[in-house]
Amino acid sequence: MFEYQAHDNLLADRVILVTGAGDGIGKAAALSFAHYGATVILLGRTTKKLEAVYDEIEQKGYPQPAIYPMNLDGASPKDYDDLAQRIDQEFGQLDGLLHNAGSLGTLTPISQYNIDTWHQVMQVNVNAAFMMTQALLPLLRKSSDASVIFTSSSVGRKGRAHWGAYAVSKFATEGLMQVLADEEEEISHIRFNSVNPGATRTAMRAQAYPAEDQAKLASPEDIMNVYLYLMGPESQPVNGQAFNAQ
Ligand code: NDP
């Protein structure tokens, strides 16, 4: 596990947007960021799940979060501009962005991979992250210490048979992260890094490995150290790097 001990109020006064915040790793990250003092914006496609996370954050007495239902599958550039405008109006700042929402597609050889599924996976995993980052850059540039985390995978660092669009989308995610890191280095205080969560007990993992014993896997809560480190001020000089949560 990535070694790091966050201190109380690590993320105080920061506004952080988490995509796919209703379930799995995104939910754990949203709760964890809020625990350490951040105001979190919960973005995802299932409003009920976002509401449950919202309630949990309120019950625990963390800073009041916000909900932003959005399906990344069909979202247009205008939707991302609206998102940026709403964040600017409501909070006037954005200090962190966790691109966590992801789509697995199917585990199929490339020779038989369905083209519509390919486009859908690339849309959610890569194009959405590109459009969202582009729309939110002006707000992130205003922050004195902004951090953007992209979510990768082991198959986004070494290709593996049958992982199709998902693997290719994660390679592209690493590329997007590196290009942004290089472009912004001289002109802003934004850092861009990627995290490979490693095998983690979530719905997506169960879909990919239905026969596996889930109890043996790390829980989303177990892998939060690297996310906290990258969102907090101690990672300030770190830019363009690929991390492993486990
Ligand atoms: P989950 O399936 O538990 O969560 C994925 C989240 O993304 C859900 O909240 C889901 O919303 C949201 N999401 C999916 N599609 C869309 C969409 N079109 N629009 C908006 N939100 C969407 O998966 P994990 O927590 O496991 O995955 C989180 C990230 O970690 C992903 O990027 C995944 O690729 C990556 N990862 C996970 C690993 C693991 O072992 N779990 C290993 C390596 C990488 P909803 O709940 O409404 O469906």
UniProtKB/TrEMBL annotation:
InterPro entries on file: NAD(P)-bd_dom_sf, Sc_DH/Rdtase_CS, SDR_fam
Domain of life, source organism: Bacteria
UniProt KW keywords: Oxidoreductase
SUPFAM superfamilies found in the cross-reference section: NAD(P)-binding Rossmann-fold domains (SSF51735)
Pfam families, A to Z: adh_short
NCBIfam families to which the protein is assigned, alphabetical: PRK08945.1 (NF006509)
Family per similarity comment: Belongs to the short-chain dehydrogenases/reductases (SDR) family.
Protein name: YciK family oxidoreductase
